[in-house]
């Protein structure tokens, strides 16, 4: 039973949600580029004003921990940690692929996901976060949100996820999914985007279980090391 602010900034989408006892109260999000450093603070302020909640009323801050964009994750985690330090409240970290799967499950329950009931019944759900070229950060879940595989950085080929595709409907979504359709023609592509609302239920469960992070030492789950690519431009 908690009032939790949730933040997801691991992709081009900047999203902030406020929830009470696992029920969404308000949501702000934007997909207008990666200006997350400015937007996340603005969205938090708007949500608190809209709901009449004071920062001191918050019981915890939850954040999507990745994998995802290096810069985006650092912005979200840094902001979340700053709030937790200032308010002396716990930090909760939720896997971004878990949260994306929660969004898909919510959209299905709301009847807005473009998939038939018989396809969903035994489907393997595969959230995909774009990692450039033909690589995605991904993990396979069942339709209850239980993880069936580890988180991996997958260079997608026609043989990728073969085990899960042979078992039944393979449902893929996220900003890395569309580029895989030609290689995985038997997969079902549905439109689902990252959102802080996918963190809400998982954060409430973590709060009730006392699963908190060490604010001083917690780091995002990058999965891969950040590589700096030297500029090809010649310096005069």
Description:
With 236 residues, the chain is α/β, with parallel strands linked by helices. The chain has helices at 36-51, 70-87, 96-109, 117-121, 162-167, 197-209; strands spanning 3-8, 14-20, 23-30, 60-64, 91-94, 124-130, 135-138, 152-155, 170-173, 188-189. Helix 1 (36-51) crosses helix 2 and helix 3 (96-109) crosses helix 6 (197-209). The relative contact order is 0.20.
Entry keywords:
single chain; 236 residues; 5-stranded mixed beta sheet; 6 helices; 22% strand; globular
Condensed summary:
This protein is 31% helix and 22% strand. With 236 residues, it is an alpha/beta fold.
Strand order of the largest sheet: 3-2-1-4-5
- Percent strand equals 15-25%
What is the makeup of the main sheet? 5 strands, mixed
Continuous helix count: 6
Q: How far from one another are the termini?
A: 60 Å
User: Helix and strand succession?
Assistant: EEEHEHEHHEEEHEEH
Overall geometry comes to globular
Tell me roughly what share of residues is in helical segments: 25-40%
Task: Output mean pLDDT.
Answer: 93
Compile the SSE list and pairings.
Elements lengths: L2 E6 L5 E7 L2 E8 L5 H16 L8 E5 L5 H18 L3 E4 L1 H14 L7 H5 L2 E7 L4 E4 L13 E4 L6 H6 L2 E4 L14 E2 L7 H13 L27
Parallel strand pairs: 1-4, 4-5, 6-9, 9-10
Antiparallel strand pairs: 1-2, 2-3, 6-7, 7-8
């Amino acid at each position: 039973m908690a009032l939790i602010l949730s933040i997801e900034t691991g992709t081009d989408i900047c999203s902030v949600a406020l929830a009470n006892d696992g029920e969404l109260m308000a949501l702000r999000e934007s997909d207008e580029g990666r200006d997350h450093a400015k937007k996340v603070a603005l969205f938090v302020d708007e949500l608190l004003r809209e709901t009449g909640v004071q920062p001191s009323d918050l019981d915890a801050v939850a954040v999507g921990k990745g994998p995802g964009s290096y810069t985006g994750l650092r912005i979200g985690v840094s902001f979340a940690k700053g709030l937790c330090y200032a308010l002396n409240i716990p930090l909760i970290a939720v896997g971004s692929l878990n949260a994306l799967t929660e969004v898909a499950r919510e959209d299905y329950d709301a009847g807005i996901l473009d998939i038939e009931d018989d396809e969903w019944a035994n489907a393997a759900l595969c959230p995909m976060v774009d990692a450039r070229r033909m690589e995605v950060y991904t993990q396979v879940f069942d339709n209850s949100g239980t993880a069936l595989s580890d988180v991996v950085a997958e260079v997608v080929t026609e043989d990728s996820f073969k085990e899960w595709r042979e078992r039944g409907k393979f449902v893929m979504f996220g900003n890395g999914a569309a580029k895989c359709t030609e290689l995985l023609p038997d997969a079902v592509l549905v439109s689902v985007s990252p959102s802080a609302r996918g963190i809400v239920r998982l954060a409430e469960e973590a709060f009730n279980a006392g699963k908190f992070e060490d604010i001083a030492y917690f780091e995002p789950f990058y999965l891969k090391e950040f590589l700096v690519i030297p500029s090809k431009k010649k310096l005069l």
